[in-house]
Amino acid sequence: MVLLLIIVFFLMLLLAGILVDVMLPGVNSILKIIIAIAFAFSVSSILFVLSVFLQIDFTVFLVCWCIVLMVLIWMNAPFIRAGIIQKNTGKQVVKAPVLLAGFGILIITILFTGVSVRWGRWDAWAIWNMHAKFLTYPQHFDNLFTGKISWTAADYPLMLSGFIAMWWRAIGNAEPITPSVVAYITALAVPLTVFAGLIKKKKLALPFSILLLFAFDDDYMRQAASQYADNLLSLFYLLPFVLLHQTENLDKEKYVFILIGFFTAASAWIKNEGILFFLVFLVFFIIQNRNNVNRIKYFFAGSFLPVSMLLFFKFLYAPSNDIIGAQSWQAFQQLANVDRYILTLKYFASRLYNQKFLAVLLLLLTVLLNRTYFSGFACRVLGMVLLGYFFIYILTPHPLEWQLYTSCSRVLTQIFPAVIYTMAYELYERSLRKELS
After folding, report:
1. How much is the pTM?
2. Using one digit for the tens of pLDDT, what is the confidence trace for 248-296?
3. CA-wise closest residue to 108 among 199, 32, 189
4. Nearest CA to 164 among 183, 149, 145?
5. Band (397; pLDDT cuts 50, 70, 90)
6. Contact indicator for 125, 135 with CB cutoff of 8 Å
7. What's in the keyword line of the UniProt record (predicted)?
8. Which candidate, 351, 353, 108, places its Cα nearest to that of 210?
9. What is the pLDDT of residue 328?
10. Which of 58, 59, 225, 437 could pair covalently with 116 via S-S, beta carbons 3.0-4.6 A apart?
11. Which residues does 169 contact at the CB level (< 8 Å), separation at least 6?
12. What residues contact residue 263 under an 8 Å CB cut-off, 6+ apart?
């Protein structure tokens, strides 16, 4: 069974690689690989969880999936042959970005191994790996939604848990290696996406510096090794902004916006916070492209599969969220409680100062050198998401200090790779424009 799943997932990666190569011809290979892996990861999770909900036999599911993938790859055989011919022409040279990325991977691997722990930390035990265990044993998976273990947040979407469970089903038992490998790959993907997204011509100093700063960031590495879904969510927050900067080839523009729609919506299949991100991004995207209906249509086309899966899960299986379900008039009275605002602002400021040095440094540089960033699309989206997080704390029915202590670092981890990338990109573009002028 494991061998069959390995074959199926290899075919899935191959197909994703073909599609990304066709959709994004001018994009560097590092970014293409990350996008293909993230796409294959998302679709695999959706299809597997759907098969569990529909009670499809796992072997039948894998065989059918394998056949469909082989047919799709056969249909795309001309693109594969063209890619092989193109890669075999001329001298093959290991380029500087690949060497620098390889060095970054080595550093991250060493430091990740040093902070990684078996089975991850508390939320991995209580939520993500717990949900994966329910999905691993389909005869018992619906016990997750009984409400008898409310502390496990059964309303959380299932991308991470579903992917882990898919491999556990194939292996035959729940083991700690799979969630560790997923956490490790995600730990690599986030800084490498920032690095690859910032590569411009032969200017590599800033991208490589930020890659190293991620690698040596203790807070980032601990969060990445925790086996929580927050680092995965940060990758899916990041990818749409990176893709927005890949629209130079107008012939392929529609594919870029399909992928943006997919990854933005897929963030909602990772955590409930991703739903907020998707809605905020969608509103600002429609406003910005109100005179270009085609872009909006492509965005919705890309978002169709993740949104459909999310709605299917939320309406048919997921119980009420503990924060939303507990809202009352008393909770809304908390909006007038000034002390709650002060405490929340102090926690945010403390975490920024102590754990997000790179973001604070880039923020200061942006204020000094590129204030137009604050009126741009990225700042509006990320600022509204951060504001949404802030008011969730204000309205929470749980003890506020406990809620902040247990989650503030994690929610900042979700958003700050995208903040760092977008600020760095704008500063980078500004410096390149100055050189050309």
Report:
1. 0.93
2. 666 678 899 999 999 999 999 999 999 999 999 999 999 999 999 999 9
3. 189
4. 183
5. confident
6. no
7. Membrane, Transmembrane, Transmembrane helix
8. 108
9. 60
10. 225
11. 1, 58, 135, 136
12. 38, 42, 236, 239, 240, 243, 302
